């Protein structure tokens, strides 16, 4: 199962340039969280700080009961084994085939026999759909396959936390959708904590359990998916609508004169788009981190944008969800037991009544 990440008052700068300051958030254990933000807001720096590659100026990063910035080198080395990292370009060794790339962490950090390494590597490659491609070189495969090979390598030490840096970078929308499905299925299967940095709005709207937004050198918002997708904050509306109107400018933020000119002209970043139903794992079972559609909005008295939670078939998932959960429970009962997997609980004992979540 995954480990909770708790960040308190984190600040990072390079010289006089403040990247972000006083960032506080909690990434729930075993759930999928996404971090959004305009280019240049330090999202990748944030991931590097979480894994201890960069040391913050001040603040705390609690991984379980360990405060990362205050660990000795030996304890930091051990704590890093809790992490798997998927870099933007996969970061594969070009001279090694995929098998050796994926096996590298096992050979570097363990004393396992080659027979056991082979079993683990092939298992992880099968999990990401690359079984049969283990003898190919990185230069012989597509960008999407390189991403999946990097993901298999990130999984070989059975991490409890998976950090993913812009997985959609260099991929077309179709491959991005397939990769998102891999993330969902992996989370359902292994129950690890996922934190994904992305610019892809569709990914942020359909994939995660929680969303955060970095902006103007601070964390503008972090919480359940519906909280951000129903927010009327100008920067959120602008980002979700990919609009030129709003506080985000080409260099990061607009100055006061630009914002005043937009206000005088009556320009608006537009209404928030409807909140789509959350993407499901391939097996159709409920992940531990999933929330009932509309539950957060109902609990907090928020009216979501019109058309929210309606899928392509016209089904309203606020109404459909109780029936879906009941049908799963009935199917499990007929089978004699509730299907089990790491990161999943009995749907009959989940918290899916409207208004039950905070």
Automatic annotation (TrEMBL):
<dbReference type="InterPro" id="IPR017871">
    <property type="entry name" value="ABC_transporter-like_CS"/>
</dbReference>
<protein>
    <submittedName>
        <fullName>ABC transporter ATP-binding protein</fullName>
    </submittedName>
</protein>
<dbReference type="Pfam" id="PF00005">
    <property type="entry name" value="ABC_tran"/>
</dbReference>
<dbReference type="GO" id="GO:0005524">
    <property type="term" value="F:ATP binding"/>
</dbReference>
<dbReference type="GO" id="GO:0016887">
    <property type="term" value="F:ATP hydrolysis activity"/>
</dbReference>
<feature type="domain" description="ABC transporter">
    <location>
        <begin position="5"/>
        <end position="241"/>
    </location>
</feature>
<keyword id="KW-0547">Nucleotide-binding</keyword>
<dbReference type="InterPro" id="IPR027417">
    <property type="entry name" value="P-loop_NTPase"/>
</dbReference>
<dbReference type="InterPro" id="IPR003439">
    <property type="entry name" value="ABC_transporter-like_ATP-bd"/>
</dbReference>
<feature type="region of interest" description="Disordered">
    <location>
        <begin position="247"/>
        <end position="288"/>
    </location>
</feature>
<keyword id="KW-0813">Transport</keyword>
<feature type="compositionally biased region" description="Basic and acidic residues">
    <location>
        <begin position="343"/>
        <end position="358"/>
    </location>
</feature>
<keyword id="KW-0067">ATP-binding</keyword>
<feature type="region of interest" description="Disordered">
    <location>
        <begin position="332"/>
        <end position="358"/>
    </location>
</feature>
<dbReference type="InterPro" id="IPR003593">
    <property type="entry name" value="AAA+_ATPase"/>
</dbReference>
């Amino acid at each position: 199962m995954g480990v909770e990440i708790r960040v308190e008052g984190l600040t990072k700068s390079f010289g006089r340039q403040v990247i972000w300051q006083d960032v506080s958030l909690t990434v729930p254990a075993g759930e999928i969280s996404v971090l959004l933000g305009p280019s240049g807001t330090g999202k990748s720096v944030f991931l590097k700080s979480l894994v201890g590659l960069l040391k913050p100026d001040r603040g705390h990063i609690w991984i379980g009961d360990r405060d990362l910035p205050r660990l000795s080198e030996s304890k930091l080395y051990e704590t890093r084994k809790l992490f798997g990292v998927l870099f933007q370009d996969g970061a594969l060794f070009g001279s090694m085939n995929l098998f050796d790339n994926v096996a590298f962490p096992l050979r570097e950090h363990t004393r396992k026999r080659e027979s056991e390494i082979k079993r683990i590597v092939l298992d992880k490659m099968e999990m990401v759909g690359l079984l049969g491609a283990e003898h190919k070189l990185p230069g012989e495969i597509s960008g999407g396959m390189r991403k999946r090979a990097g993901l298999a390598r990130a999984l070989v030490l059975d991490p409890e936390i998976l950090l993913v840096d812009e997985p959609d970078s260099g991929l077309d929308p179709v491959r991005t959708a397939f990769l998102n499905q891999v993330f969902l299925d992996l989370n359902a299967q292994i129950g690890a904590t996922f934190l994904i940095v992305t610019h892809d709005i569709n990914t942020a709207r359909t994939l995660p359990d929680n969303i955060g937004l970095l902006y103007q050198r601070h964390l503008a918002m972090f919480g359940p998916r519906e909280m951000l997708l129903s927010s009327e904050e100008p920067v959120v509306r602008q980002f979700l609508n990919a609009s030129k109107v709003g506080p985000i400018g080409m260099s990061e933020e607009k100055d006061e004169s630009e914002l005043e000119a937009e206000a005088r002209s009556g320009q608006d970043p537009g209404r928030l788009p409807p909140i789509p139903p959350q993407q499901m794992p391939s097996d159709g079972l409920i992940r531990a981190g999933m929330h009932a559609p509309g539950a957060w909005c109902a609990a907090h008295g928020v009216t979501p944008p019109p058309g929210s939670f309606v899928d392509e078939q016209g089904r309203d998932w606020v109404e459909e969800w109780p029936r879906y959960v009941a049908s799963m429970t009935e199917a499990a009962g007929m089978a004699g037991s509730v299907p089990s997997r790491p990161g999943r609980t009995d749907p009959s004992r989940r918290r899916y009544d409207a208004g039950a979540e905070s």
